[in-house]
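re: ur question from yesterday

yeah so i grabbed the chain u mentioned. its 533 aa long if i counted rite. heres the sequnce exactly as i have it in my notes:
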Amino acid sequence: MKKKTAFALGVAAGAAGVIYAKKQLGKEENQRIKYDVQNTAIQGLLKGISTVLPDVPREDVVTYGSEGFMEGHSVLIDKAAKGAKWKLGFAKVSVLPEDVGIGEYYIGGYLSMPPNIAEGVLDDQVFRCICLDDGSGRGAAVFGVLDCVGISGSDVRAIRGLLKGFAAENNIVSINISATHSHSCIDTQGLWGNLGKAFKENVRGVLKGQTEGFVSGRNEKFMNELHEKAAETIKTAFYDMKAGTLYRATADASHLVRDKRPPNVTVDEITTLHFVPDDKEAKGTRVAFLAAHPVSFGDKNKTVSADFPYYICEGFENMGDNGLYFQGPQAAVATSRGSVVPAGTPFPENIIEYGHAIARYCAELDKSQYEKVEPILNVRTTEVFLPISNYLFFVLAKLQVVNNLAVRVGKKKSDLRFITEIGYVELGKNMRFALMPGEVMPEIFEGGAYQADKAYNHYDWNYPALKDVVEGTLFGIGLCNDSIGYVVPDNDFGSVTAPLHYEESVSTGEKTASTLVKAFINLVENAQELKKA
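ran it thru and got these structure tokens back, copy pasting raw so excuse formatting
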């Protein structure tokens, strides 16, 4: 069948689905059925398009070799090595190109027609990282965070690739990079460029055998420089490592956040780490973990800003310390500023004050709220082969708009799986982290997910809260080592046209949550077995 004919048939099939949906809408009285019919029509249209779209050559799952993946420590411990001390190094770098406002750099975070091209800069777009070692001799781990809306696993692996020899020579066993999820930084994913132009030119490019140079919201020169800057900064953090003491504290954060989607669960705590070097002349390092969307600038914004995460870090720096901020399971969670920002504070000063207030809140906690963290660091990571049922992701992947890692698992054009990662980290005796690749609904971490009587699909969510899977206190780092969209409990995964179900439109599918939760449970169990070995 000729490609033009196949494409026409695919579009026709989608159009027929839309006509069918309109007829059905007039007959159905039940709102949920109406939404489901609409969703079926939308997915049918996307399926029709994705079926006839050409694709670049992709590796088969049988021959896939996990290039760039790092599994972490091969030996895990449950007590500190004799005489061990923490060693921590910090480094940061601006990734902003010099020609912002002149070059073509799209703002990532909001779909806009025409797309938003950066015209100015409020603060900065920064990559920050720490290199951490517990003194046990089993190897150091890197935890980096980039001011951006999201970064793909392919980009994380490209950065690891630049460090392959360095990591091997210096016993760095794990490199993890997450996103702050700021919606006002330069696009690092590709979703917020000229999609019409991408559709037109990328299809032609694939048919001609093109393998690079596709139209996307990603500026490839910017991304290549970002990879190089991040790799060099990780090296700097390694060389900056100093011995010292690590402290942690957790405090109430219910006044700082609010949920926009039922069942209205938030991570109501903010956690902070404070590393104090033995060298009194050296800078300390403070880290904040909070789950809330940095979406202060709106969908018409053309100014680059890292939003409140930048000002949390700046607040720590104003105190004489290095600063990092890690995003948590924030899904539909927004900021709540009323209790910390004076009424009437104009924009963007209100954003600046919110970030500074969080930094002060962490630093001014009573000393009794801080406790020492024993020098125990265990890191384990596993790959997850993620099924895709949202055909939007097939379209975006085949159009080369996004560069998420995907492999073939069959002969059909739809037989693709995204390869992503999840991680499990133990810090000290009772501090645990889940490194998750998307925007996770907090109820998956905290509990409180809808059960059959209230869930969209009317069946139970039969999985434990992730915090109940571990021994100790669990913290989440979202958009870590990949960005795959929203992670919604399977039983409440509804139609993209239903009220309060926007997140489903930017999710790989209704099995994403259960797939990741099962993988995390297995990862934790595997970690416990390794301790016994």
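noticed a couple things. The first helix runs from residue 3 to 27. also The radius of gyration is 23 Å.
anyway ttyl
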